[in-house]
Amino acid sequence: MRIYFSGSISGGRADQQVYAGLIARLRAFGTVLTEHIGDPALTEQGEDGRDDRAIHDRDIAWLRQADVVVAEVTAPSLGVGYEIGKASEWGKPVLCLHRGGRRLSAMIAGCPGAVIRQYQTLDEAGSAIQEFLAVK
After folding, report:
1. Is the pTM of this model over 0.85?
2. 41: containing domain
3. Where are the alpha helices (DSSP H) in 9-105?
């Protein structure tokens, strides 16, 4: 299974360790096309040496290749929302993981193509991932 993991980059890297933990759990189910999202060296400034168009085109290619999308949506991110919208438009299964606290955008919470699961711990997120991917 090819998994596209989505998490905030430009919107802030405060959840980088959470992303890394989620990516580690996703690896048990297949290939994570976007493992770099969990890399501690990746900053809010994005990827060094790549222009915006190259990143967009690469990520869209990965998104098209993906069998499923798993997005951590606690930190608001225009890019994550864009990816969820595209995946939903293309009929790809989408799991959105949210820790609560901050209100989730209605465009994500109300998206008929996305499954929304709240969690507080990585173990809870792991259970949500397992349940979601077991039927894919």
Report:
1. yes
2. 2-134
3. 16-26, 52-65, 78-89
pLDDT tens-place string over residues 6-43: 999 887 778 999 999 999 999 999 999 999 998 888 86
CATH code for the domain of 114:
3.40.50.450
Domain count, the chain: 1
| Residue 45 CA: distances (Å) to CA of 42, 73, 95, 109 | 8, 19, 26, 28
Q: Residue 52 in 3-state DSSP? A: helix
Instruction: Find all residues with CB under 8 Å of 43, minimum gap 6, and list them.
Output: 13
State whether the Cα torsion 75-24-39-6 is positive or negative: negative
Q: How far apart are CA 4 and CA 75, in angstroms?
A: 17
Identify the band that residue 136 occupies on the pLDDT scale cut at 50, 70 and 90.
low
